[in-house]
Write a structure and sequence with these properties.
The chain is α/β, with parallel strands linked by helices. The protein contains 6 helices and 4 strands, in the order αβαβαβαβαα. It has a single domain, classed as Rhodanese-like domain (Oxidized Rhodanese, domain 1), CATH 3.40.250. The radius of gyration is 13 Å and the shape is globular.
Amino acid sequence: MIGTAELAARLAGAAPPLVVDVGSRLAHQSRPHIPGALLLDLDAIAGPSDALAADRSIVFYCACPNEASAKRATQILLARGHRDVRALAGGLDGWMAAGHPVEEGVGVSFAAATDRRAA
């Protein structure tokens, strides 16, 4: 797990992690996101993805109780051999409660988000 303060510091650093919002398409359309987050559901995370390369530092978050989806996504990548992958403690609610920025109404598709973050 990674805390909100540590994630905020890493995002401001020279080599920020890839941040992934784990949720359904409906959830992604109706809630805010951490700026720059890649929007994926668990099925997309379980499948092959260039954006989720094993050499990348990745932080998953969700808006579900006990960070269940983010923890599951973390387990999936750890089982594939990823080393630097963690779930955000407190999820989206914890991020917002700590006063960190969010983007409202992000109108991107999953494919557009993947293309944008993978580049």
